Amino acid sequence: MDDLTKQQIRDAYFRLIEQKSLSPRWGQRQMVAEVAKALARMDDPTASGSAVCVVEAGTGTGKTIAYAVAAIPVALALGKKLVVSTATIALQEQFVNKDLPDIRKHSGLDFDFVLAKGRRRYVCLSRLDKELAGSAQEQSLIPLYPDEFDQADSAAALPYYNAMLDALGRGEWDGDRDNWDTEIPEDVWFGATTDHRQCSGRRCPNIGQCSFYRARDALQNADVIVTNHDLVLSDLALGGGAILSAPEETVYVFDEGHHLADKALNHFSGYCRVTASVQWTEECRKQLRQGASLASCTSVTSVLDNLPRLFEDVGGALEQAGQLLDELIDPEQLSGFADRQHYRFPEGVVPDPLRQVAGTLVALYQKLLAQLQRLERAMEDGMDGDVTGLEKADAENWYTVFGAMLSRAEGSLALWQEYDVDAAMEDPPHARWINLIEAGQGISYELRSSPILAADILREHLWDRAAAVVATSATMTALNSFERFILHSGAPEDSVFKVVPSPFDYSNATLRVPAMACDPSDPAAHTEALIALMPDLFVEFPGTLVLFSSRRQMHEVYEGLAGGWAKTILVQGDYSKQETLRRHREAIDQGRSSIIFGLASFAEGVDLPGDYCSHVIIAKIPFAVPDTPLESALAEWVEARGGNSFMELSVPDAALKLVQASGRLLRTEQDSGVVTILDRRLVTRRYGKAILDSLPAFKREIA
C-alpha cells in the first residue's frame, strides 16, 4: 500500500469522526489499522501472510466505519470491487440507506455503491406476459421440487400480475419484490419470477426492460456492492463472477462473519426427494409428448426420440432406490423416530446396494444432462432464428422448459454423486442421511448430503481465490480463541487475527449466578426452580429479556407464572418478532414493566437499549444437543479422531452463544444492568470457569 492510500485512510477516518461529532474510539482505530494492514498484502509480493483479516469487534466499536474507511480507499487504489456482505436484511438496508451515504458525505471519499439481490427478488416480464396472456404451456416451469411449491390460483394471482404490469408501465415500480407496497403471497410471486436456468438472458425479447438485468448492469459501474451472504455464496457456487465480480478482482467484507461457515454448508449441501423425483420424470415425459412445435426441428429429432426412454430409466432406478430404503428403514422399529424423522448413515458410509443404485443413477443423470444441454443449445440457436422449422417464440418457451429440467437434473446428479463415493477416502467425511416425509398415506424419502465442515469449501471457493477478505462480528472467538472459526471456516492460519475492545465499561453491569439447589441436568427440578426464582428477579428492572434454550421449558415456565404475570410477559411465537419488540417498547414508554420470553433468535441481533432491557436472564448454558444429522456426524468424526466432542464442539459453541446472549444487555455506553444466569454448572463443572472467563468483564456476584 502506498503512502498516498495510507494518508487517504487516515484523513477519511478523522474527517468522518470530526464532521459527525463522534469521539475517536481506540478499538475502532485499531480495527482500521488491522484491516488496512491485511489488505495491503494484496499489493505486496513480499508479504508473508494471506490478505485475510478476521476481527472480533466488541459491541459499540463502530466496526462499519472501521472496515469501510479502511477497505474503500484500498479497493479503489488497486482497482478492485468491494463487496460488503451481511447476514441479515436489516443490516444490509442500514448499510445502504444510512451508513454508506453518511460515510460518502462526511469522509471525503468518492465512491459509488449499489445493492445487489438475487434474480428471484425481481419480476420476470416474460413470465408476467405469459401468465396474463394465458399462453404459458402447462407446467412450463417445473420447480426443483414441485411438492414444495403450490400453484397459485389464477383468480387470486391475476390481479397481482395486472397491477405489477401496470406499475412497471407507469414507471412506478422497478420490479424489485422488496419495493412492492404490499405483501405478495409466495405462490403468486413464484409464478412471476424465474431462475438463472430458465432465463434466456440477452436473447429475451424483454431484455431492454428487464428489472434484474438493469440492476445487474448497475453492478458493473459501482465501486461498492452491498449484498448478503447467500448471494455471495450462490455466486461462488456457480464458479464466481456469475452474478458479482470475479473473486480475484474482489475484496470481500463479511459483516456478521460468524455466520459464514453455516451459510456455506447450506449452499454446498445436496438433497433429492425420491417420490417427487419419480413424479418429475413422469411429468417430463408428458411434456415431451406435447412437443408438436418441435416436430419439424430435425436437428433435435434424435434427442427427442431417446429422451422419454431415458427419463423412464431414471424413474425406474429411483423406484429401485425407494425399495431399498423401504428395506433399510423400518419406522416402527426405529427408536425415537417420531422425534427425529431421520436416519443417518454412520461415518457417512452408504450401504453397498444403495451405493450401486447411486452409481446407476449417476450414469443415467449424466446422459440425461448431456441430452438436455444439447436441447438447450438448440433452443438458444432457435431464439437467434438459426433453426429451420422452429419459431422464436416456441424456442423461448422450450428453452424455459428444458432449463427447468436441467436445473432439477443437476441438483439430483450432485446428490447421487455424493452417495456413489468411498466414504473411507474422505477426511473429514460428509454427513449422509435420509429425512422421512409424510406423503399421502405413506412415507417418502429425502436423501441428504453435506460436508460436516465448510473449511475445504471456503478454501477452494473463497480464501484461495479472493483478492482479499475481511470477516468481522462481535463474536468471532469462542473461549477467547479463534480456533473454532478456523476449524469451521478454514480461514488461513497466517491471516491477521485481532480482537478489538468494546468502548463500553462492563463494570457498569453485573453478572449474577444465584444459589440454586439444582441445575439443568434435572430438567423438571430446574424448571420448578425457575418458576420459583423469577418473580423476585422481575421486580428489579422495568425491561427484562429472558432467554431459553428449550421451547418446552419456556412454555412450562410461562404456564407456571401466568397467573400473576400474563399481562406482563410477551412469549415468542404469540406475535412476530418485530411486533413483540414493538409491544415491549410501547409498554416501557408508557411506564409499565415488560418481559420478553425468547429463544435463540432473541439472543442475537436484538437491540433494546436503556430501560428497554436492563436485565437479561439466561435460563441455562445454551448447549446444543447434537441430535441433527450434521451435528451428530461432526461429533462422531471428532470422537473417531480421539477427541472429546463435548469439550471441542459443544463447550465452545455454548460459550459463543452465551456471549451473544449477554451482549443484549449493554447497547450504548450509558447502559447498565444485570445479566443473571440460572445455571449452576458455571460454578460446579470443570468447563464452567472457561465459559465464565470468555464473558465480558462484568462485575460478578456468584453465590
From TrEMBL:
Residue ranges occupied by any Helicase ATP-binding domain in the UniProt entry: 14-328
Entry EC no(s): 5.6.2.3
Annotated catalysed reactions: ATP + H2O = ADP + phosphate + H(+)
Keyword annotations from UniProtKB, A to Z: 4Fe-4S, ATP-binding, DNA-binding, Helicase, Hydrolase, Iron, Iron-sulfur, Isomerase, Metal-binding, Nucleotide-binding
Family (UniProt): Belongs to the helicase family. DinG subfamily. Type 1 sub-subfamily.
Function as written in the Swiss-Prot or TrEMBL entry: DNA-dependent ATPase and 5'-3' DNA helicase. Unwinds D-loops, R-loops, forked DNA and G-quadruplex DNA.
Protein name per Swiss-Prot or TrEMBL: ATP-dependent DNA helicase DinG
Naturally occurring in which organism (per UniProt): Candidatus Litorirhabdus singularis
